[in-house]
Amino acid sequence: MESDNTFDKQYDELEKDFRRQAKRDQEKSGHAVIYLPAIRPKSQVDFVFVGMEPSLNFAGSEKDASQEEVARYKIAHGFKSSMFSIHDFILHYSISHYLYRGDCHYHITDLSKGAMRVEQARREKPHERYKRWYPLLLKEIGIVSKENARVFAIGRTVEQFLKTPPSPFPRPIRIIPHFSPLAARYVDQFIAKRVADRVCKEFLGSFKNKECERRLIQHILKVAEDVMSQAGLCVELKDQTLSRLEKKTELTKFQKKLIFAYKLAFDEVPDADMKDFVETTVYIEDIPWREFPCVDPDE
Predict the structure, then answer these.
(1) Shortest CA distance to 89 belongs to which of 242, 260, 253?
(2) Which of 122, 163, 221, 260 has the fewest CB atoms within 10 Å, measured from its CB?
(3) Which of 37, 42, 33 is nearest to 15 (CA)?
(4) Domain spans, the chain
(5) How far is the first Cα of the chain from the last one, in angstroms, to the nearest whole number?
(6) pLDDT tens, 60-96?
(7) Helix (H) and strand (E) counts for the chain?
(8) What sign results for the dihedral spanned by CA atoms 150, 50, 245, 210?
(9) pLDDT per residue over 100-113, tens digit each?
(10) Where are the beta strands (DSSP E) in the chain?
């Protein structure tokens, strides 16, 4: 493993490369492309998650002329990718509760790190954009991950790109569903391939206990607070985000299925891949597991 000093220097240089590529993308497109940093790991990690690309939605509506200005303000005050929506934090929560085995760490990144307006991203050819960023993704993986680290593609688009030229990707890839509600059908398919329909219905039925659902939301919010603190987000923006998320009093059916899909995906990671990890099960105090879908039974 790299020393902390070497790791920090390499990551600093990597971020310079990211900023230069975002600038080149902006010059090529003629539209705003803003480098949105990932949450910086403290050292090499055990798991890497690769998404598509960030949008500027974290900075308000595309109809708002100040969107770019707001984005730059937030980034300057510690905002990072994968820490805005409840779906972002459902992924963080699921990783920490279902994937962790002992003392391990993860990193969430994107194929392209240049945040842009959604409509702009759709008009351009994303595959060409991903190819421009691909060498930097390989460099990033080499810097941030341990030799035996597992790599997860967030969604089929990422998986398909990494398995086609200019790939193949040099490491084994596992796929997990994207957390966008637009991926609802794929989430259903992902679950159906792994368990009988009655198992999914039993899982969803456990949410009839509203106190358990409330507690689950509170645990997701606690993870959100920890993630934002680790990222160095300023107190003002962190409080704003938590205030917005705290208005959520129940999860949608898609969000419940998403948590279940992530649990199934992470349960499939064989312990043989984690030889250095001590397997643990996370329990929530005083709540029987059968009444609470985010806690595993004894296995």
Answers:
(1) 242
(2) 122
(3) 37
(4) 4-291
(5) 33
(6) 877 777 889 999 999 999 999 999 999 999 999 999 9
(7) 11, 6
(8) negative
(9) 877 789 999 999 99
(10) 34-35, 45-51, 106-110, 114-115, 145-154, 173-176
